[in-house]
Specification:
The protein has 11 helices and 12 strands. It has 269 residues and is α/β, with parallel strands linked by helices. The chain has a domain of 124 residues: NAD(P)-binding Rossmann-like Domain (Rossmann fold, 3-Layer(aba) Sandwich), CATH 3.40.50.720. The strands form 4 sheets. It has a 6-stranded parallel β-sheet, sandwiched between helices. Helix 3 packs across helix 4. The longest helix is centred in the first third of the chain and has 14 residues. The relative contact order is 0.16.
Length: 269
């Protein structure tokens, strides 16, 4: 059994020459820019195929791609074991970053999220959470980290206010990771970045190296168990329209899986 990474680079631009085809100048994604979405069979380059364990069920395997985004984000942040993490935005990618950071040795992971369902979901996974609209938010956010700012922050919401929170609450010489795609340009206080000597790092999808890392990480029972909880519903192919509608509008939705193939699953649910 194999899983395919969907990122296809041109192979010739400077990013591709460095093995970072996720940042290719002419990037194509299978199922988006080329045919392949919801097909029982799809043609992909051999180098984009990764073997998965024989006992891994297909629903778990389907979550490797979003997990790879989180693995790429955490590795690119340079997070060290024992450091603290702030995540603004508790959607699926924010939750996966939290899971990955914890598995990578973070001593404290705090998620700031306005949606009550997502806060509850994160709490059930064992993370500390905070509502950014509550009174005295800044003081409470520090309290959740022992009165200190965070070594690494991940901005996953796309909100201007969340970017400000990350810059304000990342410790001196720390790292701010820009994950979300903002709908419009953000104002960034470069004076604070200068004064605190912050590193501001953008990330895009996932590299081949980190996709492979996600395959291995999903082999960890604790990680796989947490990641599977993000699957809110499973739909059949003829229910794809309903699946998209639920994914977009469902108030208690994380990730939705569409079952395409009749291939027998292994390993169980």
């Amino acid at each position: 059994m194999v899983i395919a990474q969907e990122v296809i680079g041109c192979g010739h631009c400077p990013a591709c020459e460095k093995g970072e085809d996720n940042a290719c100048e002419y990037l194509k994604i299978i199922g988006v820019h080329t045919a392949g979405g919801f097909a029982e069979y799809v043609k992909v380059p051999v180098k984009k195929l990764y073997r998965i364990p024989d006992d891994m069920d297909l629903r778990t395997a389907a979550m490797i791609e979003p997990l790879a985004v989180a693995v790429h984000d955490v590795r690119m942040s340079g997070l060290k074991a024992g450091e603290s993490v702030l995540i603004t935005g508790g959607g699926p990618i924010g939750q996966l970053i939290a899971i990955t950071a914890r598995a990578s040795g973070a001593r404290n992971v705090v998620i700031s999220e306005i949606n009550s369902y997502r806060r509850s979901f994160a709490e059930q996974l064992g993370f500390r959470v905070i509502d950014p609209t509550e009174e005295d938010f800044d003081r409470r956010l520090k309290e959740l980290n022992g009165g200190r700012d965070y070594e690494v922050s991940f901005e996953v919401s796309g909100a201007q206010s969340a970017m400000t929170v990350c810059i304000d609450h990342t410790a001196n010489t720390g790292t701010v990771m820009v994950i979300a795609i903002a709908m419009k340009p953000h104002f960034i206080d470069t004076g604070k970045i200068f004064a605190k000597e912050l590193r501001l790092q953008g990330v895009r999808i996932h590299s081949m190296y980190n996709f492979e890392g996600a395959v291995h990480m999903m082999g960890m029972d604790s990680v796989a168990a947490d990641v599977r909880k993000l699957i809110s519903r499973v739909y059949q192919l003829d229910e794809a329209e309903e699946a998209f509608d639920y994914a977009e509008h469902g108030k208690e939705s994380m990730k939705v899986v569409v079952h395409v193939s009749d291939l027998q699953e292994t390993g169980g649910e």
